[in-house]
Design goal:
heterodimer; A: MetI-like fold; two-stranded antiparallel ribbon; 4 strands; 4% strand; globular; B: 360 residues; alpha+beta; OB fold (Dihydrolipoamide Acetyltransferase, E2P); five-stranded antiparallel beta sheet; 8 helices; 21 strands; 35% strand
Chain lengths: 281, 360
Amino acid sequence: MQGKSVLRAVSLVLIGLFFLFPLFWVFLMSFMTNADILRNPPSVIFSPTLHNYGALISGNLGTVVGTQKIDYMLNLFNSFVLSSGSVILSLILGVPAAYAFARFKFRLGEDMAFTLLSFRFAPPLLVLLPLLIYFQQMGLYDTYFGLIWVYQLITLPLVLWIVRGYFEDVSEDIELAYRLDGHSWLQTFLRISIPLARPGIAAAALLSFIFAWNNFIFALILGSSSVQPVTVGALAFITASGIEYGQIAAALVLSIVPTLILALFTQRYLVEGLSLGAIKG
Amino acid sequence: MAFLEITGLNKAFKGHAIIRDLSVAVEKGEFLVVFGQSGSGKTVLLRLIAGMLQADAGDVRLDGQSLLGVNPEYRDIGMAFQNYALYPHMTAFENIASPLRSRNVPEDEVQKRVHDTARLLRIDHVIDHLPRALSQGQKQRTALGRSLVGRPAVLLLDDPLRNVDAKIRYEMRLELPRLLRSFESTVIYVTQDYKEAMALGDRIAVLVDGTFQQVASPHAVYDAPNNTRIARLFGDPPINLLSVRPAGTAHGLTMRIADTMVALPQTDEALVGRECMLGIRSENVGVSLESTSGIPVTIDAITPLNNRLVMLLRCTDGTEVFASCPQGGPLEGLRGRHQAWADFDLAHALFFDTNDGARL
C-alpha cells in the first residue's frame, strides 16, 4: 500500500514536470538576455534582467542592429477587447438559446443546435477567404466588431452546448413552482434558471474566453495590426536581424497571466454544486 | 356550479392517452384525494390543472372562469411537489415568501405572514437556512408553507408525504387536515397510499387508466367499490375475489364456494345463474379451529399486520383466501398448518361482473 502511493506520487510529479517544464523554462527565459538563452549548454544560473519586460512595455524592441517599434501592449489590449467582447456577445445570444434548446421541443430545433455545433468541425481556412471578401465589402475588415462577430464561430457553439446541458439539469418542477408563485416566465428565467445554471455558464464563459484568446488565424487574416491580438502580435518578434527569444518569452508570460487569473477566479463557480439539495436526496 | 370543475379532460403523449375523458367537480373548501397507482396519470392531471401542460380537450373552470390558456402565474393555484422543488439558492424564508414577493406585498407584511406560517409548520427555527441544510421533514414543511402562504384558491399537493420518514408521515397525516382547514383551502391531494387517502379525504377520486372510475367518500369506496380494480386497490391484504354462480332455491339464493354450498342473504334475482366474481374482504372471513359448520380450509400461514392476524387459507379445491382477525384470539401463536373452518360473512359480500369487473 505504502509503495503504491509513493509510486503514484512519483509518477504524478513526473507527469507534472513533463507538462509544466516548458512553461517554467519560458518563465526563466523571460528574465534572460538573448545571449544567456542561446548559451550551450543551457544553464539555469544567470543574472536575471527585467530588460525584456521593459522593452515590451515601452514598445521599443532592442535588436543587435538597433531598436524597432512594437505595439505589444496594444495587442494585449486587443486580446482583451476581442475575447471579452466575444464571450459577452455569446452569453447574450447563447444562454437564452441554450435554454430554448433545453426546454422546448420545436421544429428543426435539434438541427439548428447541431448546425451551430458543426461550426466547430469546419477548418477555419475553408471559410476565411469568402469571409475576407465579405468583410472588405461590408466595411467590417479590421474592426473589433468584425472580429468579435467572426469569433462567434468559436465561442457561441461552446456556450450553447455547455449551458444547454446545465439547463437540462435544472428541475422543471422548480421552474413551475416559481411560476405558480405568481412570477412571469421571464422572472423565472432570470431568478431561477440562470442562477441554477451559473456553474455551467461560468465554465462555458471561461472556456470560450480561452478559445477566443488563443485564436490566431481569424485575426491574422481579417484584421491589421490595429486590432490584432497577442497571438498575432508575437510574430513581430521574428525580426530581420534574428529572433528575440527573451522578449517572446516575456510576451508569452504576459499573455498567459490574464487567462490564468480568470481560471483561478471562476474555479469557485466551476465546482460549486448549486443544485445540491434542491431535489430530494 | 362547483368551485373547481374539470370536464372531459383529455391528454395524450405521442398518441398514448394518459388522461381520458376525466371529469370531476370539487366544492369550495373540500379536501379531495386523488388516489392512483404510479403511472395512472396523477402527476399529468396536476400539471394540467396547474397550467404546466395544455389539455388536448376538455376544460378546467375555477369559480366559473375557464383556465384554458391562462398562464400558471395567473391561476391562483398553489402546489407542493413530491420532490419539494425548493429554490436551492434561496433561504427557507425566501422560499416561503416567494408567492408574496410576486404580488409586491409590503415587507413588514411579508415578514409577518412568513413567520406566522413557519411557526404553524414548526420550522421557524430553521427559517434562515438554505434548503440543503434542512432535513427531509423540514424541506417538506417549507414546500408546504410556500404553497399555503399566498392562500391560493386551490391547493395541489402532489404526494407530499411520499419522501418523508414514517414518524413525520404519521404526524403530518394527523396535522394536515387541521392545518388546511385553518387556511380554508380547497385541496386536491394526490397519493398512492390508500390508507392516506382514507385518512385525509372528504372524498376519494380513484384514478385508473387516466380517468376517475369512482369519486365517493372513503367509506363508499371501501365498502362499495365500483369495480374489481378499485376493490383490489383498497385494503391490505387485498380483497378476495372468487368465481361463483349463485343459484335460486326455495329458501333463497345459494352458491358453491370450494365444494361447499352456502346460503346467500341477498335476494337479488339478477344474480341467479350468472357467472360472477364474489368479493369479500379478509375481515369478513371468520376462522374457527373447532366449528363444524362453514367451509373446511387449511391455514397455510399466519402473520401479524396492523394489530390483526392475517391468515392465508387454502380451500379443498386449492382456492386461496385471505382472512384476518383481531390479535389476541385463540389463533395467536399458531404455527404450521392447521385444519380449520372458514365462515364467510356474506352480508358484506360484493358481486362483480366476470367480464368487465363492474359491481352488480
